[in-house]
């Protein structure tokens, strides 16, 4: 669709009209006076002029006349704070689509623009952004081969789960790559990566230790088990040991409530181990 | 396990009609000699914790050694439910049930039971009079149950579709597809008045009808296996132990609703469920029970498994559907129900695992049969996770309307360690506690609501006199504060404020008016929150206040925790009369708060003590010198 040129000397009116048109989905240029307008029209192919009748220098009607002399297909809408029958008739003779009195009724203006240019074809993304999106950077090393060709946006959570499992954390590079690859805004990727408990934005230990704090475990002493585990591992709940050997976390329910309190170490479940048993299990973890 | 899997997946035969299915059923049954001994080993998650895989391995190796490998079948089955006594081994055809089996017991079982046909007495269940019980279904824990949904778990290998078919599996699907119209299937489920087992108790048939009638050609059906309620694990055991029953229900539902795409949303914490379900899907696809033109009926249906990523709120229907779309699992306002506009704006019918597993039963046996079980408003059975301070913990399936007393005492065997019953918590973080005075309450959707709690997904956590009710309320609110998605203010801020007050009370800093303030906040959170997480969040607080107000008062006014749980309000003491000076507590104290010498009375330095309770735990029972007390301000000021 061809752009619209607004010719208006009053700054507030010019800018607000320009903004409103942009928001409505049109491409817009604004100028202050007739001379400038005629210069701009030569440089760029406009579809419609919206002109104030009274302008410094050349008035609106002369501008419309000169402009149409060069480009007869150009349409114009005249707006004025001083409407009169004579100027209205004159305007129509010079090829104006219509003649509107200030303050402008935006609904009416919209209808007139649509008549002149046809309905807006909304372009959600400016063309430059479109180009940037298509360039997917090379996948960082940590992305396993079977995930390199993902394309379905709705698989985002599943892919993140896989990545978390493979690398035990989600790096910035991995998230940025995924954002481009799936064409999902980075904020949305981070939104998901920080919303779910399964994801970690810092590296997790080689061995995952989870103490269940579900209700059944809670009433049977989950806190004691957590304290014991903290002491044996020398890692606080939610933290990872410096040598990246262990991560200790609490989990809301592991679903083996009958055995509570329960601890899960590398996918294996243990029912209320004593400190000595814990030490033994832990010593087997490299 | 792997043996069965390969036979199934290698079997590429596709059913083209209900008759094909029946023929295969006959063939499998004929192939299986009913008298051939079979050792079944429970492989539920509970038994995995006890090491059932080592028991299984021991059986394989020992049978090989004894030259019995081809004379005895071994089957690892789904969860038997009596998790307290795992690993459970049942020997067929005699159905001899051995409990707490360890790998070292295996050779004795083989020589004594399988070869000499005698019993291993010490592995049998022993009742309170010392009587040995041989069969699983005669053990009190099982005797009072009606295991119509859960019963097959113990008979089949979850990774074998042939096992499921041999037990009559997929006959309901065949019946629905070949003998019934979708409308008839829908009517049957409506007539049965099957209510959603996930918590709300909404009639499944009505929900199906809404989705069926909603405009649009594309419709979705979903299994909600995001079992987030802490303390509940029946969905896990069903999906792990009998995935085909859930799948069969789902396909039937899809046929009734007119959907061709299904989803199963499984919690990330349940890897075995994902594994068994994925195997089941592949097998069903190979047999033509999924995919195009199922059983020659012209009906097409596919299922995708979607793993959750650890968020309680994702169990809420609109949040779950957002997660399936790959978005953040946050609820949305439901002016338009998900049954009309769910996944990608299409009509989407969501039911819980147990609800789907009930569907094949209703189709096979009819709505009127289903109606004979349960109460007026709640039909059928319900599986509960009976856990906490009860003797027989595990999964129990009982007809709706059984009283709490029967469940806790007859099935659960009463309270552990001869303690006194205090309350039972049902409905997870959305539910409440029910005190002793209400033990004769018949358990169904409506009665539990009246008592200020709810059915929820079926967690039943038994609490004894050593459980502090203020701490329980605090526990649930701290859970909910962590799980609130934060989208709406009343839930996000309200729960935090309430939690702050409860923390204060538990730490002995409560003040007069706190209870009333809690009640006031509860009202706002309940009325103004966006989704059910918020609107039901106050339940644990309100119900504990309703039944245990005195306990709150003791914390606030006397700074005393009657149950001896709240750390700030208790202290540990060594009785000089009883202490033998054995050094055990002294050596075990992690903070070095105990002083004394060999054969000298030990003393706890209250300043240093971090109240971990180790001393109480390690003091030999024959001395019993350490005690935990909560004296409160009266006693403290006197001292």
State the gist of this model.
The complex is a heterodimer of chains A (286) and B (639). Chain A is an alpha/beta fold.
How would you summarize the topology of this molecule?
The complex is a heterodimer of chains A (286) and B (639).
Chain A: E1 4-7, H1 11-23, E2 28-31, H2 34-43, E3 48-52, H3 60-70, E4 75-80, H4 85-93, E5 96-101, H5 106-117, H6 127-134, H7 156-167, H8 172-182, H9 186-195, E6 207-212, H10 215-219, H11 222-233, E7 246-251, E8 262-265, E9 268-271, H12 275-283
Helix pairs in contact in A: 2-3, 8-9, 11-12
Chain B: H1 2-10, H2 18-31, E1 38-42, H3 45-50, H4 52-65, E2 73-77, E3 89-92, E4 96-98, H5 106-115, E5 125-126, E6 132-133, H6 140-143, H7 161-166, H8 171-179, H9 182-192, H10 204-213, E7 220-225, H11 234-241, H12 243-257, E8 261-266, H13 271-286, E9 302-307, H14 317-324, E10 348-352, H15 353-365, H16 367-371, E11 381-388, E12 394-399, H17 404-411, E13 421-426, E14 432-435, H18 445-450, E15 459-464, H19 469-483, H20 489-506, H21 514-528, H22 532-536, H23 539-557, E16 571-574, H24 584-588, E17 594-595, E18 603-604, H25 614-618, E19 626-629, H26 632-638
Helix pairs in contact in B: 8-12, 8-15, 9-10, 9-12, 11-12, 11-13, 12-15, 19-20, 19-23, 20-21, 21-23
Which key terms come to mind for this protein?
heterodimer, A: alpha/beta, 5-stranded parallel β-sheet, 4-stranded mixed β-sheet, 12 helices, B: 639 residues, 5-stranded mixed β-sheet, disordered N terminus, disordered C terminus
């Amino acid at each position: 669709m061809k752009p619209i040129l607004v010719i208006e000397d009053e700054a507030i009116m010019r800018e607000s009209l320009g903004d409103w048109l942009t928001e409505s989905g049109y491409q817009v240029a604004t100028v202050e006076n007739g001379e400038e307008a005629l210069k701009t029209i030569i440089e760029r192919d406009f579809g419609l002029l919206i002109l104030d009748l009274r302008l410094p220098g050349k008035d609106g009607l002369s501008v419309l006349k000169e402009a149409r002399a060069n480009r007869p297909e150009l349409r114009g809408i005249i707006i004025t704070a001083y409407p009169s029958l004579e100027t209205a008739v004159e305007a129509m003779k010079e090829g104006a689509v219509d003649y509107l009195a200030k303050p402008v009724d935006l609904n009416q203006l919209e209808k007139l623009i649509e008549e002149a240019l046809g309905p807006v074809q909304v372009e959600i993304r400016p063309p430059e952004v479109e180009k940037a999106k298509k360039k997917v950077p090379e996948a960082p090393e940590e992305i396993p081969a079977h995930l390199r060709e993902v394309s379905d946006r709705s698989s985002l959570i599943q892919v993140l789960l896989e990545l978390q499992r493979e690398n035990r954390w989600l790096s910035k590079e991995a998230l940025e790559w995924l954002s481009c690859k799936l064409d999902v805004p980075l904020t949305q990727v981070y939104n998901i990566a920080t919303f779910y408990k399964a994801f970690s934005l810092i590296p997790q230990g080689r061995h995952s230790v989870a103490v269940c704090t579900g209700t059944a475990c809670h009433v049977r002493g989950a806190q004691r088990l957590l304290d014991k585990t903290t002491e044996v591992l020398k890692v606080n709940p939610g933290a990872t040991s410096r040598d990246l050997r262990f991560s200790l976390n609490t989990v809301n329910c592991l679903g083996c409530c009958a055995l509570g309190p329960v601890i899960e170490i590398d996918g294996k479940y243990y029912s209320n181990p004593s400190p000595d048993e814990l030490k033994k299990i832990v010593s087997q973890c490299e | 396990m792997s043996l069965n899997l390969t036979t199934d997946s290698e079997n590429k035969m596709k059913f083209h009609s209900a008759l094909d299915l029946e023929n295969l059923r006959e063939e499998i049954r004929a192939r299986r000699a009913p008298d051939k001994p079979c050792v079944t080993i429970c492989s539920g998650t509970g038994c995995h914790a006890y090491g059932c895989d080592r028991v299984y391995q021991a059986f394989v190796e020992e049978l090989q050694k004894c030259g019995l490998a081809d004379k005895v079948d071994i089957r690892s089955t789904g969860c038997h439910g009596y998790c307290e006594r795992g690993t459970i081994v049942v020997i067929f055809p005699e159905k001899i049930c051995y409990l707490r089996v360890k790998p070292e017991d295996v050779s004795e079982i083989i020589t004594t039971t399988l070869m000499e046909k005698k019993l291993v007495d010490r592995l049998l269940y022993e009742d309170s009079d010392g009587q040995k019980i041989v069969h699983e279904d005669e053990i009190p824990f099982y005797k009072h149950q009606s295991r119509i949904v859960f019963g097959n778990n113990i008979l089949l290998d979850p990774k074998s579709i042939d096992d499921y078919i041999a037990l009559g599996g997929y006959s309901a699907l065949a019946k629905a597809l070949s003998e019934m119209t979708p409308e008839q299937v829908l009517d049957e489920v409506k007539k049965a008045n099957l209510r959603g087992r996930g918590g709300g108790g909404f009639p499944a048939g009505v929900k199906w009808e809404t989705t069926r009638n909603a405009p649009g050609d594309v419709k979705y059906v979903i299994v909600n296996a995001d079992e987030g309620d802490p303390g509940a694990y029946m969905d896990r055991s069903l999906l792990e132990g009998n995935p085909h029953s859930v799948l069969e229900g789902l396909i039937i539902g899809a046929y009734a609703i007119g959907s061709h795409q299904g989803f199963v949303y499984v919690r990330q914490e349940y890897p075995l469920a994902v594994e068994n379900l994925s195997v089941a899907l592949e097998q069903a696809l190979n047999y033509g029970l999924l995919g195009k033109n199922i059983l020659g009926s012209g009906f097409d249906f596919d299922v995708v498994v979607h793993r959750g990523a650890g968020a309680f709120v994702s169990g809420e229907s609109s949040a779950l559907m957002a997660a399936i779309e790959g978005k953040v699992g946050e609820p949305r306002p439901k002016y338009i129900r998900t049954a009309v506009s769910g996944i990608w704006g299409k009509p989407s019918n969501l039911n819980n695992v147990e609800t789907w597993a009930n569907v094949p039963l209703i189709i096979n046996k009819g709505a009127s049969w289903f109606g004979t079980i349960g109460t007026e408003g709640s039909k059928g059975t319900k599986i509960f996770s009976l856990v906490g301070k009860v003797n027989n913990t595990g999964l129990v399936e009982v007809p709706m309307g059984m009283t709490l007393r029967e469940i806790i005492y007859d099935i659960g065997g009463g309270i552990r360690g001869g303690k006194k019953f205090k309350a039972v918590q049902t409905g997870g973080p959305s539910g409440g506690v029910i005190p002793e005075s209400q033990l004769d309450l018949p358990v169904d959707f409506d009665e539990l609501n009246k008592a200020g709690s709810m059915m929820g997904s079926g967690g039943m956590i038994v609490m004894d006199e050593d459980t502090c009710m203020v701490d329980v309320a605090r526990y649930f609110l701290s859970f909910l504060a962590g799980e609130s998605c934060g989208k709406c203010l009343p839930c996000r801020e309200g729960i935090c404020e309430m939690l702050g007050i409860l923390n204060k009370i538990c730490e002995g800093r409560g003040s007069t008016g706190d209870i009333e303030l809690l009640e006031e906040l509860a009202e706002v959170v309940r009325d103004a929150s966006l989704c059910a997480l918020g609107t039901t969040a106050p339940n644990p607080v309100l119900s504990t206040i309703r039944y245990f107000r005195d306990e709150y008062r003791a914390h606030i006014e006397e700074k005393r925790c009657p149950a001896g749980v709240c750390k700030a309000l208790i202290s540990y003491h060594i009785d000089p009369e009883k202490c033998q000076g054995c050094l055990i507590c002294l050596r075990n104290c992690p903070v070095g708060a105990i002083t004394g010498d060999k054969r000298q009375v030990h003393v706890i330095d209250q300043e240093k003590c971090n109240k971990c309770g180790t001393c109480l735990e390690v003091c030999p029972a024959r001395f019993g010198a350490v005690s935990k007390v909560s004296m409160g301000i009266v006693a403290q000021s006197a001292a």
